[in-house]
Amino acid sequence: MHLSLLQFLIIITSVIFFLFWIDLFRRKKANILHLIVFIWGSFLLILFSLDMNALNSFGSFFGLARWADLLVYISIIVLVYFYISLYNKNIRDTQQLTKLISALAIEKWYEEEKEKMKKYKNSDFRDEFVFNIRVYNEASMLEQVIEEIISVWFKKLVFINDGSKDNSQQILEKKREEHTDCIFVILTHKINRWWWAANQTGYKFIQKYAEQLKVKWFVWFDPDGQMDIKDMNTFIAEIKKDNWKIDAYLGSRFVKWGSSENIPDSRKKILVISKLVTRIFYWIKVSDPHNWYRVIDIEALKKIQLTADWMHYANELNEQIQKNKFRTKEIPVHIRYTDYSLWKWQKNSNSIKLWLQMIYQKIFFR
């Protein structure tokens, strides 16, 4: 039998597909999709290259007039598959980079400050709260936010300076020198890794050193001025009322309507859609799934494992709350929408990216 150049190339491609499968199987990375694409794909490629009539019959089954059309569609499917595989690999690589950056930031601070940690003592109930604050180019609001927190007697602050290009680092060091009675933990990322990485660094640090810090409650707080520190009075009142039986208190703009200031109508619509999407994909029933004003018990925090290295980190946290069956309670909070916060963190386009990433994560990422 005489093989054409095209038939020869198709057979070689099928052999390469089969070798891909063997490599995946040896590394224990193979799944049912790989089996379909590589094993059955290899078999069909060889069959069709040797018998064009079989290819025509196969194409007619799908209503295609020419076998060449079928090859085009198959090629598109294969290209999409390889794109998804490469994208998955890129995500895994960025996750590893985030882990490295976080570990270096935590290790550097601990080596410099570990002797001071041994001297930490609590003098008030509020000393049991530690604030996790991610910082990226927040010089215009950072000092004001720090003073607001300290003014109501919270003294333990963990900052993750995520590669800021402005003078945020200098402001943090200045405030640490001014408030010697407070604990300023400044974890510095050498390069910017964005919000999700900053959160991971804060979680890992407090999960590891909560006992040395002598804290029982973890507080998510933003440095852009949109969160009202007075809402902590509500959180504390509920903690005492519930007798420490709740694992996570979730801030919500919708427990009581109108609790947020200057919230744009477009933002309200996006938040409603976000709640619906979160319920469909994660089966989580909360009124405000992407509100980061939260207070969580340290023992519950230690059970959370976050790996997200893109914008769907909020949903991953919600998923962890559900997975660990945390006892939760929603608390009304006042989120202040300003021109700065809308420009900095609250862009509507971010919500669209989040939905797309969430769908990709749930369906395609492995």
Beta strand count = 7
The major β-sheet equals: 7 strands, mixed
Query: Rough shape?
Result: elongated
State the secondary-structure class: alpha/beta
| Mean pLDDT figure | 80
CATH superfamily of the largest domain: Spore Coat Polysaccharide Biosynthesis Protein SpsA, Chain A
- Along the chain, the helix and strand elements come as HHHHEHEHEHEHEHEHHEHH
- Rounded to the nearest angstrom, the radius of gyration is 26 Å
Spell out the blueprint of helices and strands.
Elements: H1 5-26, H2 32-50, H3 52-61, H4 67-117, E1 129-135, H5 139-151, E2 156-162, H6 168-178, E3 183-189, H7 194-213, E4 217-221, H8 231-241, E5 248-252, H9 265-282, E6 294-297, H10 298-301, H11 313-323, E7 328-332, H12 339-344, H13 348-363
Parallel strand pairs: 1-2, 1-4, 2-3, 5-7
Antiparallel strand pairs: 4-6, 5-6
Helix pairs in contact: 1-2, 2-3, 4-7, 5-6, 9-13
Structural write-up:
It is a single chain. With 366 residues, the chain is an alpha/beta fold. It folds into two domains: 5-91, no CATH class; 120-363, Spore Coat Polysaccharide Biosynthesis Protein SpsA, Chain A (Alpha-Beta Complex), CATH 3.90.550. The chain is 58% helix and 11% strand. The chain has a seven-stranded mixed β-sheet, sandwiched between helices. Strand 2 (156-162), helix 6 (168-178) and strand 3 form a beta-alpha-beta unit. The chain is elongated, with a radius of gyration of 26 Å. The protein starts with a helix and ends with a helix. The model has no long low-confidence stretch (mean pLDDT 80).
